[in-house]
Design a protein that fits this description.
Blueprint lengths: L1 H10 L7 E5 L6 H17 L3 E5 L6 H8 L7 E6 L1 H8 L11 E10 L1 E5 L8 H10 L5 E4 L5 H13 L4 E4 L3 H10 L4 E5 H9 L4 E5 L26 E8 L4 H15 L2 H9 L2 E3 L4 H21 L6
Helix pairs in contact: 2-9, 4-11
């Protein structure tokens, strides 16, 4: 019994080296905000440095692979978003499986996407957009930060559900796409609520609907897409922290507990909510089921719409 106790204790003992939080996207993104908000507090709780490292490239696959190849001892963790499971189907020739080769540790938050349009289009509701798209299929353009992003696949789900065709204009990042949306070069786009909010408030963009199962307190007058008669288009984005496959369950449980406590603090909740993210938590098993279910859902859409990463 004493030997078993020592073994269990050893499994929950982290290496002395700094813990790396790998962010597979550039600084300033929602994922980066989570890492830089949680990181210092996790360091305090664990009694060792936590370093945020941005490993950018290949739609998040470079940073993700760095974690997949790392030792499952708690020294390297991934902060990611549901793009992770989308990439599994968009990049079938990956040398790793982003679902099976990672261990979900902790859900941290949900982010909402809203469907917006330029006021010049004259669309006041989702019904207006759908009617116009049916009158002139392919003539209405929508933008995204790139192929395979949640913004892109959310619009593809909207198209499939509504039975309309809009032409996709992919950009290299949200900034250039937003610039063209504001100038009227493209007609519509899904945007994170915190990105769209100031422009909606200023009348520079029209919010047609939110892609979640309920309205958001930051924009309480904006209906869900289901309420707007666009079908069940729930494109809420989950954010969370992952470890390499094979991490000891008790170490996963310990990190899950610490991260859950951090996310529940008023300071972190406030930091997330200002950015339009809703704090969330749950067990590693619940997070695992969410990841697996979402992977199937997006795989079906990618296959049915013949979407590729090229």
């Amino acid at each position: 019994m004493a030997l078993v106790g020592v073994g269990a204790l050893a499994q929950t003992t982290l290496p002395d080296a700094p813990i790396r939080l790998i962010v597979p996207f550039s600084p300033g993104t929602g994922i980066d905000l989570i890492a830089r908000t949680v990181g210092p507090r996790l360091a305090e709780r664990l009694g060792r440095p936590v370093v945020v490292e941005n490993r950018v490239g290949a739609s998040g696959n470079i940073g993700t692979e760095a974690v997949v190849r790392a030792a499952p001892n708690g020294s390297t963790l991934l902060v990611s978003v549901n793009t992770l499971v989308m990439n599994r189907s968009l990049y079938p020739n990956l040398s790793f499986d982003p679902v099976h080769d990672l261990t979900p540790v902790a859900l941290t938050s949900w982010g909402q996407l809203i469907l917006v349009t330029n006021p010049k289009t004259g669309y006041k509701t989702v019904t207006d957009l759908i009617a116009a798209a049916r009158r002139k299929p392919g003539q209405i353009n929508y933008g995204s930060p790139g192929v395979g992003t949640p913004h892109h696949l959310s619009m593809e789900l909207f198209k499939a559900t509504s039975g309309v065709f809009l032409t996709h204009i992919p950009y290299r990042g949200t900034g250039p796409a937003l610039t063209d949306l504001l100038s009227g070069q493209i007609d519509a786009m899904f945007l994170p609520i915190h990105v769209a909010l100031p422009f909606v408030k200023a009348g520079k963009l029209v919010a047609l609907g939110i892609g979640s199962d309920k309205r958001h307190p930051l924009l309480p007058d904006v209906p869900t897409l289901a309420e707007a008669h666009a079908g069940n288009v729930n494109v809420a984005m989950w954010y969370g922290i992952f470890a390499p496959r094979g991490m000891a369950p008790d170490l996963v449980a310990r990190l899950n507990h610490e991260i859950g406590d951090i996310v529940a603090t008023p300071q972190v909740r406030s930091a997330f909510e200002v950015q339009g993210m809703d704090p969330a938590s749950g067990t590693p098993q619940e997070f695992q089921r969410l990841v697996e279910k979402d992977a199937v859902r997006w795989a079906q859409l990618i296959k049915s719409q013949h979407i590729t990463a090229e």
